[in-house]
Automatic annotation (TrEMBL):
The lineage of its organism: Eukaryota, Fungi, Dikarya, Ascomycota, Pezizomycotina. InterPro entries: Frm2/Hbn1, Nitroreductase, Nitroreductase-like. One of its GO terms (molecular function) is oxidoreductase activity. This is Nitroreductase domain-containing protein. It comes from Penicillium daleae. The keyword RNA-binding does not apply. Residues 24-194 form the Nitroreductase domain.
Amino acid sequence: MGSIQVEFKNPATTTLLELARSLRTYYDLKAESPISDDAIEAIVQDSVLHVPSSFNTHTSRVVLLLKEEHKKAWDIAINAMEGLLAAGQVPEEMFETQAKPKLNGLRAAYGTVLFFVDYDSLAPIKEKFSIYADKFDPFAMESNAMAQYLVWVALEAEGFGANLQHYSLLIDKQIQKTWSLPTSWKLDAQLVFGVSTTDSGEKAFTPLEGSFKVFGKSL
């Protein structure tokens, strides 16, 4: 099942889908930017502001780290991994051949967007709509994921390469301490970006036949 060739009413729809098709994960990044820091900030702000959230709860919290501040985040991750190595929880060979090179590569980029969810802010809505109380945390994660995706797409459209990381359990406490963030902010993901030094590879796809169905289509 391939893409259907159609003409959309709004040309922006074609552009949006083209950006989705071109999105790739880039790991070989350098500390350069094709746009101003103000433009990067505008992308992150607009994405967080305009992404929808369940019951308009707006639980996403975001921190943008650039240049030396970005490096601090990955120094924290490197130090955390070194602690695991010293404690015998990570094999030395894996640390030297896999973990350390990867973390140094992330550190070499231009910036990181830290994505958090403030679950404590959901207390009033959980009380008001108790029947949905156990659903609001997953709903908050869904909204946060949409923000992650939108920032990623927009940064790549502006000439960046990026990759999404999940080192939260290793670095969250030190991240909060370093930038004096509220303890209610729970770190979920880290979007690392910079100018890519490699070409994009081909995307691999799972066939849609087993995961997509349509009913009621006009012929």
